[in-house]
Amino acid sequence: MIKTVIIEDEKPASRKLERMLSNFPEIEVVAKIESVEEGVVWFSENEHPQLIFSDIVLGDGLSFDIFEKVPTKGFIIYTTAFDQYTLKAFKLNSIDYLLKPILEEDLSGAVEKFKSFIPSNNTAGSEDIKQLIRKEKSTLSRVLVKIGYNLKIVQTQEISCFFSENKIVYLQTEERVYPSDFTLDELEDILEDKKFFRVNRQFIINSDFIKNIHTSPYYKVDMQFQPQEEITVSRDRVKDFKEWLVG
pTM to 2 decimals? Predict the structure, then answer.
């Protein structure tokens, strides 16, 4: 049996996931946890399961906090309505990332992926498996931004560019500019390569919003929506930039 724990602060969502997992006879749910505090206590006092399904945003913090305080060798499948935490999720023993509402086929695929990572001795946590996990790449499809006391979901397809200013990374849409929690280096890893390109140390642009490209005396890109500062292509990136445009 695959010992499994569910971390979810919404009881209806927890019950639904447990029902969905009941379709897998090899999975046994041994605990359901509702908060970071409860999670730290449980993982400190109990044998860790092989598999963990965890929401990310809990009532008293992020579930990442649990595993930063009590490291686990179990594999984690994150479940959440927001995917802005993708990069951090894949740094913490995560093998998959399911966006809510969870679909049966997505859940089945995640369980099968977990089973493929388990060695013949049925133990998890080896360095070889971790290397396989690090090769997994997830593409950012939407970003959660904060506006005052409100949260807003911005689809990446609506973002003209990301840019850094005063150590904060912003995203530009037709509507306005929003601050984000990312660095440009992180965004390079999780944005769709065919759509987004980092033209210099300050800007990542979306090909769908390119309005014009100047080539003399240097490469400069005009976007449909951008901050006042001009967007130039670094000399060492020009070759890659041209290949990206036609690729």
Answer: 0.54
